[in-house]
Amino acid sequence: MSKLGNLGARLHRGEISYDFVGKRKIWYGVSILITITAILGLAVRGLNMGIEFQGGAVFTTPTGMSTSVAQAEEYAKEASGHEAIVQKLGNGSLRIQIAGIDTDKSDQIKQTLAKDLNLNSEKLAADLVGPSWGEQIASKAWQGLGIFMVLVVIYLAIAFEWRMALAALVALIHDITITTGIYALVGFEVTPGTVIGLLTILGYSLYDTVVVFDSLKEQTKDITKQTRFTYSDIANQSINGTLVRSINTTVVALLPVAGLLFIGGGFLGAGTLNDISLSLFVGLAAGAYSSIFIATPLVADLKEREPAMRALRKRVLAKRAQAAAGEDLVEAPAGDEPGDAAPAVVGPRNQPASRTRGRGRPSGKRR
């Protein structure tokens, strides 16, 4: 931990750094590749919408069932003619959900399932879910997402500038696209928990981005009054100065989410935890990536197009070229290495006074 803290302090002071902005074309290429993969996953496989969005029935058995999940899935498929999702709950009961069936058919499926599971039909709880409820959730989610995007752009444009607002918007779209694309590729069910997770990651995605933007704004107040750094140089310093902080906050946020996803969802088979934890896990990781590799380099790209920033870049590069040329003319002092000859002296020099001058005069003094 002390080594990590020392690394963070050195990055913050600018003693060491990594050229994130200078290699931005690599990061853009990686992001474009990931985004295209996510879009293809959405187009080819599509999202596995949950029963809340499609409508259907959910059957819950009593506790202590000895029937396996695979066997229950087979019974449900034979009884309904549809694919069924079966989850074993913590108390030993089974949750069987079948999408796309109406009320009349659900009663018939209930009777058949109860017979196959050796249960009294009264002990098999059945709940019907209409697709209109899921449609309302999706509609409200899209409305909330749109309002959130507009408010974020307005706030960032006022607090910082429109270029930073545009870069943050691109980063948000990048994170949401990747998260939904991974959902399509993995095949996890999209439930209201998924929608909640997607809306939650928007704030996390912006957090690291705003931290870097705030540092960048602070360091570029009087940027045109100096000739040491270009805008891209200072943007790179801002990323490096907040890098360890971004990594720490992201890791701390990912650890409990990973526990929900891999322990709660993987070992315990809790479907609801899978729904929300996968969106949070992917969204947090994508948000940390986009704040470092997408948002700030994009701001630097946009700012470098300004006439004032282009003029500053010319002055900085000219000064660096002049300094490099001056260093090439500097010669090593004599005696640094054995056998080195003394360098020649260029230009006029003062001759040393003769030791014999002034001798023979009455006073004996030199003039």
Automatic annotation (TrEMBL):
Q: Which stretches does the entry tag as region Disordered?
A: 327-367
Give GO MF terms, alphabetically.
protein-transporting ATPase activity
Q: Which residues cross the membrane?
A: 26-44, 141-158, 165-188, 194-216, 251-270, 276-300
- Ranges annotated as biased composition (Basic residues): 356-367
Query: Which keywords has UniProt assigned to this entry?
Result: Cell membrane, Membrane, Protein transport, Translocation, Transmembrane, Transmembrane helix, Transport
Query: Is Transmembrane helix set as a keyword in this record?
Result: yes
Q: Which GO terms describe its biological process?
A: intracellular protein transmembrane transport; protein targeting; protein transport by the Sec complex
The compartments listed are:
Cell membrane
Topology relative to the lipid bilayer, per the entry, is:
Multi-pass membrane protein
- CC annotations in GO: plasma membrane
Biased composition, Low complexity: where in the chain? 327-344
Primary location: membrane
| Pfam families found in the cross-reference section | Sec_GG, SecD_SecF_C
Protein task? Part of the Sec protein translocase complex. Interacts with the SecYEG preprotein conducting channel. SecDF uses the proton motive force (PMF) to complete protein translocation after the ATP-dependent function of SecA.
- Family to which the UniProt record says this protein belongs: Belongs to the SecD/SecF family. SecF subfamily.
* UniProt-listed HAMAP family: SecF_B (MF_01464_B)
| Subunit comment | Forms a complex with SecD. Part of the essential Sec protein translocation apparatus which comprises SecA, SecYEG and auxiliary proteins SecDF. Other proteins may also be involved.
This one is known as: Protein-export membrane protein SecF
